[in-house]
């Protein structure tokens, strides 16, 4: 049986060689007459006739999977790269002449002479494998190798494991298919086009595809600048990418490089002296290896922003109808993604978060910060006192993929109860009801829930509410209630204008809840009277955006992370819009800003410690939530930011805790969240050289009078 099988194989290869010769000399069409004889050599091949079809094979180099690159707002700083195949496609004129010749010398010395099949190479492989019984020899031309790579790439891109198998199996059928396609290719494409295709698709090391990526990986230069030594080193890798990669096997890499140099000399591409001089240089002396880690995992301090930007692509219909299509575009589409991330802002936020509470602090409390540019929606950066780890989808440890500064749908958590940082929204709603911030109101420590107007809200019982430290101040104006952060005044305001008015205003200003199943402010978990003292769950980014609306003369924008996205052809793709619009009037926004600066931040105000350096006019509000969350939000005209500190996974008290080496039996926002906010703002404003603008915050006279028809609450007091 073995002897009979050997004769069959020999006969097949003899016929195959005859067929190949006929293809080269007589053309593909005429060669069809020999096709039955070729298949007759091995009846098992007949079943594979469909796999020999060449229709639908795409040899366009620009359609190869290419890596996408994410940039910071400066358009130069690379945040991360995404790819399934790390590849940068370049034209042949951007590949050094030495590199082109090194590959031809290594892979197919008769490349410029044959018509797709190297008959001598096939014959040599046949004799070595079947006559001398030596190691299996390939005998494939460079064109055939290009065809094989294209078939493999398309099968992998289509996620077709059967096609992947047929493109790589060691069978006569595969070889024949490659020969058929190669001959047809040589009639359609020039040698230069085929060489260009091969150089861009071939694997040049572990996870390295294409000559440009290889040049940057091993030598930190472009393929057009490769020297003789560098070109020979790269060209040597393709025979066995795992074994001949110089970062994996330096000794074997040098041996193989020298083989390529000898081949280049034999082909007359370089002189004997050039060959000798090149071989005298150790490979290790030429390397300048660059990291090629993919995805946000390799983005360092920008990882959390990277994850947010990536989520905007994966969640946005602009980039594909399905998430699978959008993920494929990100990993294979060769996109250039220009984000809104300000390098200075993100760095300052990350440094501040870690300095406030170290990553490994025993309390496990999270610090989450977000910064946004008012009037644009551009997210500038995040600060999280955690190490980004894409494999850790849950929180609670020092490493996590959760960005606690954003909504759950964007890769965040449940958010933080925002406490008194909500209260500027109440003041804006009050003025939208055409009421003055200087009207004295009667306040109480208990309110009938049925007395609060609202869309379908029907509360029963009473709501006991008091100020920090107990009791109430009555009468008190809405302005004084904000300056002193008194809860009872907020309740009286809500009773007069209705929680519907406050919820409407919050939504206009950019507010929504963080939990993905209850984002609507009118959800049952948030739409109730305690909402007005911040019993809602929101992300720091959402709250930063609310403060940005106040900072931008009442213009609200949807937060965005993407400024511009170009596809591999350089064409701009549509990106999610910020949808900037006038949400509240300029007069209301300026008056809220006035209340924050002239009252809340001044000596005696609840946020006096937020005052920024160099006399810069400061607008801020602090908040706590029953010793479980510490918060501070604020702005200057050029940037708004928000800081939340607490346990993002479960409610835990700050009381009697030692945090970052400091102990307090009772913690307040002024001890931790406020210094963090102030530190970030001062650091960023200085690093970015943002000029001081102290002209903002002029109150509108329409809202600062002292009389109004409704000067008292209609509540029935149930106790003071």
TrEMBL record:
The keyword Amino-acid biosynthesis does not apply. One of its GO terms (molecular function) is peptidoglycan glycosyltransferase activity. It comes from the Bacteria. It is an enzyme of class 2 (transferase). Keywords: Carboxypeptidase, Cell shape, Cell wall biogenesis/degradation, Glycosyltransferase, Hydrolase, Multifunctional enzyme, Peptidoglycan synthesis, Protease, Transferase. Its EC number is 2.4.-.-. Residues 77-264 form the Glycosyl transferase family domain. It catalyses: Preferential cleavage: (Ac)2-L-Lys-D-Ala-|-D-Ala. Also transpeptidation of peptidyl-alanyl moieties that are N-acyl substituents of D-alanine; [GlcNAc-(1->4)-Mur2Ac(oyl-L-Ala-gamma-D-Glu-L-Lys-D-Ala-D-Ala)](n)-di-trans,octa-cis-undecaprenyl diphosphate + beta-D-GlcNAc-(1->4)-Mur2Ac(oyl-L-Ala-gamma-D-Glu-L-Lys-D-Ala-D-Ala)-di-trans,octa-cis-undecaprenyl diphosphate = [GlcNAc-(1->4)-Mur2Ac(oyl-L-Ala-gamma-D-Glu-L-Lys-D-Ala-D-Ala)](n+1)-di-trans,octa-cis-undecaprenyl diphosphate + di-trans,octa-cis-undecaprenyl diphosphate + H(+). GO terms for biological process: cell wall organization; peptidoglycan biosynthetic process; proteolysis; regulation of cell shape. InterPro entries: Beta-lactam/transpept-like, Glyco_trans_51, Glycosyltr_51/Transpeptidase, Lysozyme-like_dom_sf, PBP_transglycosylase, PCN-bd_Tpept. GO terms for cellular component: outer membrane-bounded periplasmic space. Gene3D superfamilies: Biosynthetic peptidoglycan transglycosylase-like, DD-peptidase/beta-lactamase superfamily. Residues 370-645 form the Penicillin-binding protein transpeptidase domain. In the N-terminal section; belongs to the glycosyltransferase 51 family. In the C-terminal section; belongs to the transpeptidase family. This is Transglycosylase domain-containing protein.
């Amino acid at each position: 049986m073995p002897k009979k099988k050997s004769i069959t194989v020999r006969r097949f290869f003899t016929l195959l060689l005859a067929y190949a010769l006929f293809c080269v000399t007589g053309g593909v069409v005429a060669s069809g007459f020999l096709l039955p004889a070729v298949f007759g050599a091995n009846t098992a091949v007949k079943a594979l006739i469909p796999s020999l079809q060449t229709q639908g094979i795409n040899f366009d180099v620009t359609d190869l999977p290419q890596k996408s690159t994410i940039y910071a707002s400066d358009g130069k700083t690379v945040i991360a790269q995404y790819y399934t195949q790390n590849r940068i496609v370049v034209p042949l004129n951007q590949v050094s002449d030495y590199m082109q010749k090194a590959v031809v010398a290594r892979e197919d010395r008769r490349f410029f002479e044959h018509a797709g099949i190297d008959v001598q190479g096939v014959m040599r492989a046949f004799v070595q494998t079947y006559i001398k019984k030596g190691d299996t020899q390939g005998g494939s031309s460079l064109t055939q190798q290009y065809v094989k790579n294209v078939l493999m790439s398309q099968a992998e891109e289509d996620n077709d494991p059967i096609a992947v198998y047929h493109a790589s199996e060691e069978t006569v059928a595969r070889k024949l298919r490659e020969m058929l396609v190669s001959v047809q290719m040589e009639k359609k494409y020039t040698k230069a086009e085929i060489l260009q295709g091969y150089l861009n698709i071939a694997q040049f090391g572990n996870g390295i595809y294409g000559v440009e990526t290889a040049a940057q990986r091993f030598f930190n230069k472009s393929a057009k600048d490769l020297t003789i030594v560098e070109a020979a080193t790269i060209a040597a890798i393709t025979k066995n990418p795992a074994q001949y990669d110089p970062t994996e096997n330096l000794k074997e890499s040098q041996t193989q490089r020298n083989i390529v140099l000898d081949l280049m000399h034999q082909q007359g591409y370089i002189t004997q002296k050039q060959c000798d001089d090149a071989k005298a240089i150790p490979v290790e002396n030429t390397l300048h290896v660059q990291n090629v880690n993919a995805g946000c995992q390799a983005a360092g301090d920008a990882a959390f922003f990277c994850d947010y930007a990536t989520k905007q692509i994966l969640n946005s219909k602009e980039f594909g109808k399905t998430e699978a299509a959008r993920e494929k575009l990100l990993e294979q589409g060769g996109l250039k993604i220009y984000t809104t991330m300000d390098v200075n802002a993100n760095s300052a936020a990350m440094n501040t978060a870690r300095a406030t509470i170290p990553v490994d602090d025993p309390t496990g409390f999270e610090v989450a910060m977000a910064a946004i540019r008012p009037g644009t929606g551009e997210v500038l950066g995040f600060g999280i006192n955690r190490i980004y780890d894409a494999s850790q989808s849950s929180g609670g440890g020092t490493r996590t993929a959760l960005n606690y500064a954003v909504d759950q749908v964007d890769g965040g958590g449940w958010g933080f109860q925002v406490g008194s940082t909500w209260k500027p929204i109440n003041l804006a709603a009050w003025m939208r009801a055409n009421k003055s911030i200087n009207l004295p109101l009667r306040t109480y420590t208990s309110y009938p829930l049925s007395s609060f107007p609202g869309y379908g809200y029907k509360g029963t019982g009473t709501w006991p509410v008091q100020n920090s430290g107990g009791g109430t101040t009555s009468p008190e104006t809405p302005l004084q209630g904000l300056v002193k952060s008194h809860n009872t005044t907020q309740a009286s305001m809500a009773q007069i204008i209705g929680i519907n008015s406050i919820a409407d205003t919050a939504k206009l200003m950019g507010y929504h809840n963080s939990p993905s199943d209850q984002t609507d402010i009118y959800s049952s978990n948030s739409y109730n009277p305690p909402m007005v003292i911040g019993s809602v769950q929101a992300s720091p980014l959402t709250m930063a955006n609310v403060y940005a609306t106040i900072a931008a003369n009442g213009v609200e924008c949807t937060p965005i992370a993407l400024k511009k996205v170009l596809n591999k052809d350089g064409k701009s793709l549509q990106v999610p819009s910020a949808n900037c619009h006038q949400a509240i009037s300029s007069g209301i926004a300026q008056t809220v800003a006035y209340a924050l600066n002239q009252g809340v931040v001044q000596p005696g105000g609840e946020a006096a410690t937020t005052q920024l350096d160099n006399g810069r006019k400061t607008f801020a509000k602090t908040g706590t939530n029953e010793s479980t969350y510490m918060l501070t939000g604020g702005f200057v005209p050029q940037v708004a930011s928000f800081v939340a500190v607490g346990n993002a996974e479960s409610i835990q008290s700050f009381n009697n805790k030692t945090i970052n080496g400091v102990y307090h039996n009772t913690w307040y926002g002024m001890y931790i969240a406020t210094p963090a906010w102030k530190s970030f703002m001062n650091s960023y404003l200085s690093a970015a050289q943002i000029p001081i603008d102290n002209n903002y915050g002029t109150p509108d006279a329409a809202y600062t009078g002292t009389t109004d028809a409704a000067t008292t609450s209609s509540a029935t007091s149930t106790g003071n």
